[in-house]
Design a protein that fits this description.
By secondary structure, the chain is an alpha/beta fold. Helices cover 31% and strands 23% of the residues. The protein has 10 helices and 13 strands. It has helices spanning 53-61, 69-75, 80-97, 101-104, 124-133, 149-159, 175-187, 240-243, 246-258, 272-281, and strands at residues 2-17, 20-34, 37-43, 117-119, 139-143, 164-168, 190-194, 214-216, 235-238, 262-265, 287-288, 306-307, 310-311. An 8-stranded parallel beta sheet has the order 4-5-6-7-8-9-10-11. The protein starts with a strand and ends in a 9-residue tail after the last strand.
Length: 320
């Protein structure tokens, strides 16, 4: 039996990116119930990819009850619906076999990984205050993506003068804005810029020097995306809601590394259940951004554990 439920989690604070703001995380949880064993997975439908709670739920509801992971890869396209079901099937398979997912997948035992903490888009004054509040964190990810971003970035650096910083423009810049900002990003010690230009309008990246690594997010979904990235990007951001689950995420990670890309593992704003499979993909990644649960006012029980070592692998009672 395949069952899907809708869950809503309040955010600790309003979360804003260049495309809009939100106060809640709306997610779908898929459950596979067979032989008295339950496996679960979570996805976050994303409007940027023409997904809604209703459309993703309809995709899941349209699957047959006997679906396995191999058949699922062609039954649904890469995206949120396949992610929830793929991760639920991994969880079910592991529980049925009596071994953890990492062992079932032939991976090494996972360890905690240091994750970025995201500061959402706001006024320079408020972003500086947020940076001061979180200045002890090892890595801050700054949401930008407007023509007025220089003041925001300067403010964050004042607030967190010693913290490593990466930035995410969420496709919000054009070529002229990025060319103007790039030298200042280096001056302020930014380590990486994520998706500075819109997907499909990013050819300019192949024509300029990239002393600052550029990471593909909206431009990279699964392995089929890789040919279109050549010469434009240095890193790929692997998100399970884009790849369509753990199965393709692991394959994309290996394929990207084989082609010389560095790896970032990111997330949508979801609960610990959504992050748990991504922790396996994040092993050895150059940048990890799995802070979704840290942005919530409430989470699942049990939740992932976060401490100075980073985000820890999930307890079996949660996933895997």
């Amino acid at each position: 039996m395949l069952r899907v439920t809708e869950d809503r989690f309040a955010l600790a604070e309003v979360f804003t990116i260049a495309r809009g703001s939100r106060t809640h995380a709306d997610v779908l949880r898929a459950e596979v119930l067979r032989d008295d064993v339950v496996g679960q997975g979570e996805c976050v439908p994303y409007a940027r990819y023409d997904e809604t709670m209703g459309s993703v739920r309809a995709q899941i509801d349209g699957l047959g009850d006997g679906m396995d992971r191999a058949a699922l890869q062609t039954a649904l396209p890469a995206g949120a619906a396949r992610n929830a079901v793929d991760c639920a099937l991994w969880d079910w398979d592991a529980k049925r076999a009596g071994c953890p997912v990492w062992d079932l997948a032939g991976l090494a035992p996972p360890k905690p990984v240091v994750t970025a903490f995201t500061l959402s888009l706001d006024s320079p004054e408020k972003m500086e205050l947020a940076a001061r509040k979180h200045a002890a964190r090892p890595l801050l990810k700054i949401k930008l993506g407007t023509p007025e971003d220089m003041g925001r970035l300067e403010a964050v650096r004042r607030g967190a003068p010693a913290t490593r910083i990466i930035i995410d423009a969420n496709e919000g810049w054009d070529a002229d804005i990025y060319a103007d900002l790039a030298p200042h990003l280096l001056r302020l010690g930014v380590e990486m810029v994520e998706q500075p230009l819109p997907a499909g309008a990013d050819d300019m990246l192949a024509e300029i020097a990239r002393p600052l690594p550029v990471c593909a997010d909206e431009s990279c979904h699964d392995r089929a995306s890789l040919p279109g990235l050549r010469g434009k990007y240095d890193m790929v951001n692997i998100k399970l809601d884009k790849t369509g689950g753990l199965t393709e995420a692991l394959a994309l990670r290996d394929a990207a590394r084989a082609e010389g890309y560095r790896v970032m593992v990111g997330c949508m704003v979801g609960s610990s259940l959504a992050m748990a499979p991504a922790v396996l993909v994040a092993q050895g990644a150059e940048i990890v951004d799995l802070d979704g649960p840290l942005l919530l006012a409430e989470d699942r029980d049990p939740a992932l554990h976060f401490d100075d070592a980073g985000v820890h692998p999930a307890l079996p009672a949660l996933w895997g």
